[in-house]
Specification:
Layout lengths: L1 H24 L8 H13 L3 E6 L3 E6 L8 E7 L26 H16 L9 E6 L7 H7 L6 E14 L3 E3 L2 E4 L1 E10 L3 E2 L9 H19 L6 E10 L5 E2 L2 E10 L2 H19 L5 E10 L2 E3 L1 H15 L4 E3 L10 H4 L5 E9 L19 H20 L1
Parallel strand pairs: 3-4, 3-5, 5-16, 6-15
Antiparallel strand pairs: 1-2, 2-4, 6-16, 7-14, 8-12, 8-13, 9-11, 10-12
The structure holds nickel (II) ion.
Nickel (II) ion binds next to loops.
Length: 393
């Protein structure tokens, strides 16, 4: 079966490059993926899949029915959105839209999902159950997965696969990781409430700027002293505002930040832990505070059994030395993790790096991919899906 999948994929290669370049030159921002979605839906319909549009606002669901409709489906998820970045690659198929660029490779993800569907459509009779392709909008704003789930795409799903391009892995190779792969990412908003006064008479006021600076310092110190160092977490205050004049003591300072953690139990305790520290700084100085902790995406935890399916499929397809075990997780976030509240799943990294020149990181205006990775991605995912159905059968 592997050689058959490789052969179908190789034959599709020119078409896949054409699709990818089309998507790359027509990027759309999060939640506005109308053309991309319509394009994907068109390709899926003409490949014989059952297509539903406008799922999760601008998403698409396409299904390939297997022999047994009672089996829970295998979902394969892709994201479709681009970033508010002006492309600087100078490629002939560079973005036609100033200020919008596929700098995170979601054009490649979408193309690969289409390729996998085209391959599996030719093997439909050998698949035990339904394979459901999820073309999700708005991954960059971490909203799309939620919209898709609200529209029921995870109903009767037994497992979910996903991938992300990775420029530090050479094209032709893939990276897999067992367990935690990406961090839980939450938003933090703290307002310190003091009392205004004359800059020359601080003892008559409550200086919210001074207290805010202590809150920040204490939080960073507390991470090292009261938090288990074997369970990574990062707290970044990225925005601070307050005060009105150089000689007026500020009565109000707002701190905005992001909180990342890997261990689900750490993640659970974070709001209370942070609030305790903020309170312990504010109270002795008679300051008040307001804190708003907003949960974002949970930790992306790869299922061991499904990760093994990907690892074995990739090893069989490309050889052991082209399958890397990813040793370090990332504290970046990915809303694929939200699907994992509904079914076990796994996400792997697809190498897209050029072997012979420097590679720019994701979200960089000069980010480029080695397009030979399209075939690596399609074959790895299609063969893993086929192996999944063999195992379930
Ligand atoms: Ni991305």
């Amino acid at each position: 079966m592997l050689s058959q999948i490789k052969e179908i994929a190789e034959n599709l290669a020119p078409r896949l490059i054409e699709i990818r370049r089309h998507l790359h030159s027509h990027p759309e921002l999060s939640g506005q993926e109308y053309q991309t979605a319509a394009y994907a839906a068109g390709v899926m319909s003409s490949s014989g899949l059952h297509v539903q549009e406008l799922v999760g606002k601008t998403g698409v669901v396409a299904e390939l029915s297997g022999a047994n409709l009672d089996l829970p489906a295998l979902a394969i998820r892709t994201d479709m959105d681009a970033l508010p970045i002006t492309e600087g690659t100078g490629l002939e198929y560079a973005s036609h839209k100033p200020g919008i660029m596929h700098a995170c490779g979601h054009d490649v993800h979408t193309t690969i999902a289409l390729g996998v569907a085209m391959v599996l459509a030719q093997l439909e009779s050998t698949l035990a159950g339904t394979t459901r392709f999820l073309f999700q909008p708005a991954e960059e704003t971490a909203r799309g997965a939620r919209w898709m789930i609200q529209d029921g795409v995870m109903q009767n799903v037994g497992a979910i696969f996903g991938l992300h391009v990775w420029p530090t892995i050479a094209a032709g190779s893939v990276g897999v990781r067992y367990g935690a792969m990406m961090a839980a990412a939450d938003d933090l908003e703290i307002t310190i409430l003091g009392e205004s006064g004359h800059g020359a008479r601080p003892h008559e006021a409550i200086d919210a700027i001074w207290i805010a600076s202590q809150v920040i310092t204490t939080l960073q110190q507390a991470i090292s002293r009261t938090h288990n160092p074997l369970r990574p977490m990062v707290l970044t205050i990225g925005q601070i505002s307050g005060g009105r004049a150089p000689n007026v003591i500020a009565d109000r300072v707002k701190l905005l930040g992001t909180v990342r953690s890997l261990h689900p139990e750490t993640s659970k305790t974070l709001p209370d832990w942070i609030e305790k520290i903020v309170a312990s700084v504010c109270h002795p100085h008679n300051a008040k505070y307001e804190m708003n902790y907003r949960r974002g995406t949970p930790t992306l935890m790869n299922d061991p059994g499904l990760t093994q399916i990907i690892e074995r499929a990739a090893t069989e397809a490309w050889g052991r030395d082209r399958v890397q075990l990813v040793h370090e997780p990332s504290l970046g976030a990915e809303d694929f993790s939200l699907y994992l509240d509904h079914a076990p799943g796994t996400m792997f990294r697809l190498g897209v790096g050029f072997p012979d020149r420097p590679n720019y990181p994701l979200h960089h205006p000069q980010f480029e991919v080695d397009e030979s990775a399209l075939i690596t991605g399609v074959v790895t995912m299609a063969y893993a899906a086929w192996c999944y159905w063999q195992r379930v059968n």
